[in-house]
Structure prediction request, 332 residues.
Amino acid sequence: MLSLVTGGAGFIGAHTTNELIKMGHQVIVLDDLSGGFIENVNTNATFIQGSVTDESLVKKIFQDNKIDYVFHLAAYAAEGLSHFIRHFNYQNNLIGSINLINESIKSKVKCFVFTSSIAVYGAGQVPMTEDTQPIPEDPYGISKYAVEMDLRTANEMFGLNYIIFRPHNVYGEYQNIGDRYRNVIGIFINQLMQGKELTVFGDGTQTRAFSYIKDVAPHIAQSINNSEAYNQVFNIGADKNYTVKELAETIMKVMGTRSELHFLPARNEVLHAYSDHTKAKNAFKIDENDFTSLENGIKKMASWAKEVGARQSTPFKNIEILEKLPRVWLEN
Prediction:
């Protein structure tokens, strides 16, 4: 089997690539290295540097190879920042996805696996279930839900099979800890390694269920072997919720160092976000007792982070709207 993994130099994509190779797949990784790192790419995969927004490149990959499965994990997943980079958000997260869907239809791909997000649900709908009506509150969630809807129409019109995952707050090895706009666990670990204060938007009482990568990626990769999963949507991730302040305390405990919390003005975000995973547990025979605890997951991520070292956080270069942009995101 030949699988195309977009975003395979990034976080979830790299882990999914590793799982596919364990399954005996040949893998082509497409990544523009804007948020990933070449060292994350499995050496047994074929690496192509480029973007899903490059329509001609995407066409050439499908023309030159008989792709059996597509795992589309490439995205710029800075949910909060998406308000201020609307064109960039839709170009990368929506139009880039459509380039892949078009070629998958033409090439008769067996299944298109897409990582969406619980950002599609919006606020005030906890616990979020797959039957909950999505009402996304930011451009990132809108773009993800638009791709979901397009996949449904592609299936109805052309028979393109799909599997949609809505993961949430995934963390672990290979994550870009130098990205200041997303991945709070990576941000906190990076700040601690540099002796900085931990920056918290609002009062830190917002809650999330943080999901360790190796509790998520294997199910994404293996889903194609489960015919009952085809043309279905699945929430996937951890069940237990933590406040951001509880998260900060856990990370400081694991890393054996303390820092002050620097509270910033609250940003426009969903305060409480957690989902129900009954459907995924039943479909993929997931035992909730097998899930990695937050403390153990952070231990594994912190050990890896210490090996690669702290990473300098660089500001996003093409902010489109400055009004209401958090000041901390403008700092060099």
Observations:
- The radius of gyration is 19 Å.
